[in-house]
Specification:
2 domains, 14-stranded mixed sheet, 382 residues, alpha+beta, two-stranded antiparallel ribbon, 16 strands
Length: 382
Amino acid sequence: MWRGADATRVTAADMRFVARREDHCRDFAAAWDAETAHAAATPFQGGRWVEAWYSTIGPSVGDPLRVAIHDAHTGALAALLPLVLRNIAGCRVVEFADGGVSDYNAPVLGPAGPDDTKSALLFWSALRAALPDVDFVRFKRMPLAIEGRANPLALLPATRASSANSNVVTVDGDWSDFLATLKGSLRRQVERNWRAFSAHDGAVFRRVTDHSEAAAVLGTLERQQSARLRRRGVSHVLDQPQVAAFYRKLVADGLADDTVVLTALTHREEVVAALLGIARGDGYVMLRISIGAPEWSSCSPGRLIILQTMKMLRGIGYRHFDFSIGEYEYKRRFGAASRPLVELTIALSPRGWPLLAFERAKLLVRRNRALYGLVHRLLASA
């Protein structure tokens, strides 16, 4: 299924893993998903996501670099890593396929994936041997676990805590049980908001599944979100042509197999709010949300569309609702639990040392809230 290039074996005496770089193939998403059918992954390393990324954002970032790692004795899959090789000021850097759109970066873990530090070090040796001439490795925002399995890259001694966290709500009971966990004032507000919204003739919540309608709703979401971010003076990458193309391809390809979930609050032809998310198994991650005309603000449409989407998905078996990265108070009000993320930054040559120093300094600034705020204010004034 996959064509290996530059196969390299670990040189350790008890060689545990073999790694190789993968060439591109036709029908990439189907091949990737078939290879990882019984693997553990985040939604950001699913076939649809990875294929859309490599075909849109990838060319503007660097050269595709996909690595497969197998057990050297049994041939069982240990991991697939969707990576990119880029040049930063003359430094050759390897990263996950991210470019500012993937909230979580991680390997896709096969049955032979390591689950202890010793095996993780052998895994890392195989990965490093398979990399081309690289100066710096920068793996950001990695979860400690992937669908309940240890992330081998998070087990490495060089791994450090990230400045970002994930925020997850797990609902094991029925929807009424979850609502009972919310503060009484919040429950009453939500009920009033929904009554105020649904009192308008033609006001409904729905999941968008038609491709032409989904394209129109996504276009509205893009305009509404961009306008809101500009008003707040927030810098973002969402208006870049390749990023817009990425989300359009993701939605167009992912609606049919339910890896993409697009929901909306609409009043006749008007999109009052829209929410885009991705799904895998019984988990759902919120990606982008938008709110329309100010006159709907009394209904709290942002809060309504989140809760209505969660309610709908819980009704068909979803349990984990990921509010993604970013520390916002509304996530705490919904009961989201913060989960730590980690990062791995390693200089593989002297050319990578300045970038390593820069990354360490940047992480220090982000961990210090006062210093982080000061830097942002200085940048904004500049």
